[in-house]
From TrEMBL:
It comes from the Bacteria. This is PLP-dependent aminotransferase family protein. Pfam families: Aminotran_1_2 (PF00155), GntR (PF00392). PROSITE patterns: HTH_GNTR. In the C-terminal section; belongs to the class-I pyridoxal-phosphate-dependent aminotransferase family. SMART domains: HTH_GNTR. Residues 16-84 form the HTH gntR-type domain. Keywords: Aminotransferase, DNA-binding, Pyridoxal phosphate, Transcription, Transcription regulation, Transferase. InterPro entries: Aminotransferase_I/II_large (IPR004839), HTH_trans_reg/aminotransferase (IPR051446), PyrdxlP-dep_Trfase (IPR015424), PyrdxlP-dep_Trfase_major (IPR015421), Tscrpt_reg_HTH_GntR (IPR000524), WH-like_DNA-bd_sf (IPR036388), WH_DNA-bd_sf (IPR036390).
Length: 468
């Protein structure tokens, strides 16, 4: 069984790395949060055996990490992850030392949030005589969410909805209820990193199926469902995170039927479903094709990330099971957020118009910034959270490390995958204000220059044009 470090690195990629490259890859995992401070690394002997490298190579890699402050060796305690106490920046960008974090693809709050909060206060005041606990969610909010599903083509009742503290909270509740340790889970590659972590935490073995800006490899997806018969499948069919792709209606029907035949429970993440700019068509939710499909959603991307409010739509018998499990780790969702959400959902046209305008401006800013970077260009991005770039060479981790030296936090492509792959890819959010995006892309341009200048020594010359 592979160590967690090798699973994160990707055995094939790490096996041919020099000691310096291996140290760089581990450093990237630490900076990206995939290895945590204090976590124990494999012994030199064990890691050498896993990667089929000499022990001296591993020793040199660990020595470099320790010298840079990213590892500490404890007598009798092995080697553990650390962070340097102080870091210096060689950024040429004078006058702005504050980092810009592109690991978070989320907009600031909708302008209507304040007014919705004020309007919600009488509703909240009327609840003061209750216990304040809301295990399933306020009836009026569940009704509003159900009506939204019905308008989108999936007839839904309030009894089929649970209000949660965000979509990730919803997914963890689902997995705590139906999860089976040791079973297999189908996941898209790339996908939302925290969903991968949740599935791993609940003991699933992950089976990736590829997605790109032009969509899913549908034959691979169907074959994997029928051949592996995974217990669960996690899909983001609308404005997929991070590629921005949307699954066509015909494919949705086929996926639902195939999953039903394979005995796979589909968990559909609709957190990004409302993030349309100019897709030009409106697909039917996947839940319309099978009553067994579990759908999770959230207000975080259309209203504000600070509103920790999401939901689950499922059949009533599963709702009952979810409600039986939920008290083991929480007793409901905050009432203030629920009262605000009722007001926001009552004016979805205004909310959607704001989201579209902000995303369009963000997309234009990213496109303009990338136009100034030789070798990179904007892929088709009809909506969603981000642009999914092809760098033309496996330099994503190196670029992410270079970006840190210029005050830019940038998750590399492997952050969105299993097994350390997707080194040619990079996610750039389109959710920041244009002026912030302009600064971020200027910093990316400097980091890209650093990678290109040093690329011949390590990986060969970076192509002058990316393959999209």
């Amino acid at each position: 069984m592979s160590s967690r470090l090798v699973e994160q690195l990707g055995a094939h990629r790490a096996a041919g790395a020099t000691s310096s490259d291996l140290a760089q890859q581990v450093r990237a995992l630490i900076l990206d949060g995939r290895l945590t401070v204090g976590e124990r690394l494999p012994s030199e002997r064990a890691l050498a055996a896993e990667l089929r490298r000499s022990r001296s190579t591993i020793t040199r890699a660990y020595d470099q990490l320790e010298a840079a402050g990213y590892a500490v060796r404890l007598h009798g305690g092995g080697t553990r992850v650390a962070l340097p106490h102080a870091r210096t920046s060689s950024s040429p960008l004078d006058g702005d030392a504050q980092s810009i974090d592109l690991s978070i693809a989320s907009m600031d709050s909708t302008p209507g949030l304040y007014d919705a909060t004020v309007r919600s206060l009488p509703r909240l005041a009327a609840l003061r005589g209750t216990s304040g606990y809301s295990l399933q969610g306020l009836p009026e909010l569940r009704d509003a969410i159900a009506q939204r599903f019905t308008l989108r083509g999936v007839p839904t009742l309030a009894e089929e909805i649970i209000v949660t503290s965000g979509a990730l909270n919803a997914m963890n509740l689902v997995l705590a209820t139906i999860g089976r340790r040791g079973e297999r889970a189908l996941v898209e590659q790339p996908t939302f990193p925290h969903a991968l972590e949740a599935l791993r935490r609940h003991g699933y073995r992950l089976l990736p199926t590829p997605v790109d800006v032009d969509g899913w490899d549908q034959d691979h997806l169907m074959d994997l469902l029928l051949r592996a018969r995974p217990h669960v499948g996690y899909l983001i069919p609308d404005f997929h995170n991070p590629t921005g792709a949307s699954l066509p209606d015909a494919a949705r029907e086929r996926v639902a039927a195939t999953a039903r035949s394979a005995g796979t429970q589909l968990i559909v993440d609709e957190t990004t479903a409302e993030l349309d700019i100019d897709r030009g068509w409106t697909p039917t939710p996947l839940a319309a094709y099978s009553p067994q499909i579990i759908t999770v959603g959230s207000m975080s991307k259309i209203a504000w990330g600070g509103m920790r409010l999401g939901w689950i739509r499922a059949e009533r018998d599963l709702i009952a099971r979810l409600l039986a499990v939920r008290p083991s780790f929480e007793l409901g969702t905050a009432l203030l957020e629920q009262c605000i959400a009722v007001e926001l959902l009552d004016d979805m046209p205004a909310l959607s118009a704001h989201v579209t305008a902000r995303l369009r401006a963000g997309r234009e800013a990213v496109s303009a910034g990338l136009a100034q970077i030789d070798g990179l260009r904007m892929p088709e991005t009809p909506g969603g959270l981000s642009a999914w770039l092809d760098l033309g060479a496996p330099v994503s981790t190196r670029l992410a490390l270079a970006a840190r030296e210029h005050g830019l936090i940038l998750p590399p492509g492997p952050r969105f995958a299993t097994g350390g792959v997707l080194e040619r890819r990079l996610r750039i959010p389109i959710t920041l204000p244009p002026e912030r995006t302009h600064t971020a892309l200027a910093r990316l341009r400097h980091a890209w220059r650093d990678v290109r200048d040093g690329s011949a020594e390590h990986i060969g010359e970076v192509p002058s044009a990316a393959v999209i």
